[in-house]
Amino acid sequence: MIPISTLVDQSTLALLCEHDRVVQRYHRLFALFDWDVLPTRAAHLPDPHPHPESAYIKAFLVKLCEGKAYVTQLRSYLVEHPLLVLEVGFTPVLDPSAPYGFDVQCTVPGERWLRYKQQTLCHEHLRLLLGRTVQALCDEIPGLGETVAIDVKHIYAWVKENNPRVSHQPLQQRATTQRGSRLSSRRQAQPQSGAG
Predict the structure, then answer these.
(1) Which terminus of the chain has a lower count of CB atoms within 10 Å, N or C?
(2) What is the number of alpha carbons within 13 Å of residue 42 lying toward its C-beta?
(3) Confidence at residue 101, expressed as pLDDT on a 0 to 100 scale
């Protein structure tokens, strides 16, 4: 959804999205997932237009792809890329005087809310989303997902024979053998004091 702006018309905004490399990179990534399995909006929230669950998941995918360790870094990145905010799917807070027709600061959820959503993200939604994607990949690529068992005993044997740091005798067993042999040799060296 592209909002209305007094500075840029719809066709120009769509053209900007098509030529923005960041937006296109994430558009291709998001196209790999089947987003239809997710609910369009959170029904339990009182806000009339809450952000869809898919927008949060897409934002957290951006966080992973960009290597952002903290939610504060993610939010800053999204605010710096307003067209990406539209691609992610956050419901824009309209502002006709803003350059893209919406207030980016108000559209992107706050750090505390993003942190909360990250901690309470519904695992069932993620399971559905990834399950459908994996199933689509298995349908597309024959043989994907089959279990293959390989015997690797010969690799372990080769490593054991050719690794100088690996001894054939366990370390604990070597230590007790050496200690025992030293004690028995000391006893033999000591003279026996006999009574009588």
Answers:
(1) C
(2) 18
(3) 79
